[in-house]
Design a protein that fits this description.
Order of helices and strands: HHHHHHEEEEEHEHEHHHE
Number of domains: 4
Number of helices: 11
Strand order of the largest sheet: 1-3-4-6
Shape: elongated
Helix content: 25-40%
Strand content: 5-15%
Distance between the termini: 47 Å
Radius of gyration: 22 Å
Length: 315
DNA sequence: AAAGGCACCAACCGCACGTGC
DNA sequence: TGCACGTGCGGTTGGTGCCTT
């Protein structure tokens, strides 16, 4: 026996929602709250599928939705987040309060793609359209984990002593003490135009990361991929790797363990929302978030766990 | 004024994942 | 351990309105 359908299709309305249906749904949720979408339609007197109700509420009726056009700042934030996360619309939406994943997805497909094409950037790879051949000559630089690595969502520029005039440089953050621990966090920098690669004499690591100006942002096309650390070296990672944002060195924000940051609680599974900087369940209601947040408080006391926790932008 | 093309976006669909039994 | 269920996600579709011819 296969899975039962989410609703009896022959007895449900489809297509655009009427004002009356909206009112019924809103009134019901005001009284009983969200959840149990399967039984909601019947309880609310709606001839709709539960999924349809959920979607209508999340994408259109929710009171905290921001209506209206996207601002230039939101545009740029979406582009940055997409370059980091790909088509993870829900994660991107979590960074833009009042916007829904569906809205952002539509906006991406209708506006931003075109905008990027007009800039000569491939919206999928975030590389210049004629740079694809250049990546074939990319070089790879392995950087010790004592290098400064920022919250990837704030990261816009990496300067690297070893970055030559190649069109592309891969940087793999690894652990000095154990060469087996590689490919933990990897970046690929693609150099575009004549932007100068700065050398940071204060950095013993050879790599610094700093918050860049919009000018830099346009000059460097950053592609970042991040893999979750394996169970094998999660403890090593917590104790030996440290990352720091240059521009925030004077002001010490709360610190967390990187593995916790990205994975929440191991036994609970990964909560990437938490890793993206949400300290509460404002963007995610999973239990991993709460657990990770609770764990962070105790973990933060350990100065070896020098992984910073940054507040999300615009939140 | 009518027809066709296009852009936009709400809504749908199938799938994946987590949870409880 | 396996199954059913509930939920969420990302890709796709279809309706609507605007613009051009």
């Amino acid at each position: 026996m296969g899975r039962s359908p989410c609703c009896e299709k022959e007895h449900t309305n489809k297509g655009a929602w009427t004002k009356e249906e909206d009112e019924r749904l809103v009134n019901y949720i005001k009284l009983h709250g969200e959840g149990c979408w399967r039984s909601l339609p019947k309880a609310a007197g709606l001839l709709r599928c539960g999924k349809s109700c959920r979607l209508r509420w999340i994408n259109y009726l929710r009171p905290d939705l921001k209506r209206g056009n996207f601002t230039e700042e939101e545009d740029e934030l979406i582009i940055s987040l997409h370059s980091l996360l790909g088509n993870k619309w829900s994660l991107i939406a979590a960074r833009l309060p009042g916007r829904t994943d569906n809205e952002i997805k539509n906006y991406w497909n209708t506006h931003i793609k075109r905008k990027l094409y007009s800039r000569g950037i491939d919206p999928q790879t975030h590389r210049t359209i004629n740079a694809s051949s250049a990546t074939a000559t990319a070089t790879t630089t392995t950087v010790p984990s004592s290098a400064n690595v920022a919250d990837p969502l704030k990261l816009t520029t990496i300067t690297n002593k070893n970055m030559k005039n190649d069109s592309s440089t891969n940087i793999i953050i690894s652990n000095n003490n154990d060469n087996n621990i590689t490919n933990n966090i990897s970046f690929q920098l693609v150099k575009i135009g004549n932007d100068t690669v700065h050398e940071d004499s204060n950095s013993s690591s050879g790599v610094t990361i700093e918050e860049a100006s919009p000018h830099h942002h346009q000059q460097l096309n950053l592609e970042l991929s991040i893999g979750l650390p394996s169970h094998q070296y999660q403890n090593q990672l917590a104790s030996s790797s440290s990352v720091k944002l240059k521009h925030e060195q004077q002001e010490e924000p709360p610190r967390i363990n990187l593995y916790q940051q990205w994975c929440g609680n191991v036994s609970q599974g990964a909560c990437v929302c938490y890793g993206l900087g949400f300290q509460t369940n404002q963007a995610c209601c999973c239990r991993a978030m709460a657990t990770a947040a609770a764990t962070t408080v105790t973990k933060a006391a350990n100065e070896d766990d020098i992984f910073r926790f940054y507040r999300p932008m615009n939140v």
